[in-house]
Amino acid sequence: MAQMASGDDAALFTFVDSFGDQVEAQVRRIVGGLFRSDILADGDEINGLVLNVCLAIHDRASGWHPGGAPPWVWAHSAIRQVVISHVGHRQVADETGIEGDVNGDQTVGADVTPDTWHALTNEHPYLQLLDQVLLEEGSARDRWIFIEYLTQQGSGDPSPANTVGEVFTLSPANVRQIVRRQRVKLKRRAEGDPHFAPLLELPLVSAA
Amino acid sequence: MNATERDLTPLCQRLAMRYAAEGRAHPLVAAVAVAVRGRAGLGPDAFAAELGVALSMVEAAERGELPAEHLPSPYLDHADQRLIALLAERG
Fold first, then answer.
1. Second CATH level (architecture) for the domain A2-87
2. For a tag site, which of A21, A140, B31, B36 has the least CB within 10 Å?
3. Which residues in chain B are closer than 8 Å to A51, comparing Cβ atoms?
């Protein structure tokens, strides 16, 4: 990674040879979560995805810190984005009930960066309210865990707590606990402040 | 998938596209030269010594200054068949 960060493109190929199998396992998990068994069965497709992912990691190598999570865990969001942009989203109803309001024509299934999240909150009043509560009542980390969890769930990830846990180096139980706490905060705020009352229309909040 | 089984030609082609956009004269040759050194896991100095060629030759190849026919033959000894075929087809 240090070699890649220094701009030596040859290190990209060394990385593929050394860690391609680990990256492939991550790619297969994501593709499997999207229920694309056709892609899983196609060795060329998987190889192409692995190489694209390695290129994405290469392009972000300067942001990685030695001693941190392995690159394929650290870059999970980018990996997921590469896979989804190639494979497409799983089309499922979101059990939170937020999909219809959040998605519209947008694709929340791709991992949300701060910029895209900001853009989404500007476009969708429910998200703006939700984010206002998250910003006012919790840590920045918990806010992003919650956002990432919703994103994974919205894209059909069958184990969003596991995925988010990998990204933030937390156990799935911790992730679930944080999400539960955020939902309770949202509900309390929605019940106590008429400005936030519309949030109660979301099962995600009302069922907390 | 075993590392030696993985087909790296798509990655070479992607890299070659970037090099072409940078204006390198022989982008595919540059990408293959970079790939061969990367698979050897060596820095430019050590790789030049391994091939028995001048460092300037390795650097010129990776900058895309050499056409495929001027690539030192030891490169081909170190490249897998798919990369050689890619060069033969499109280099």
1. Orthogonal Bundle (1.10)
2. A140
3. 8, 10-11, 14
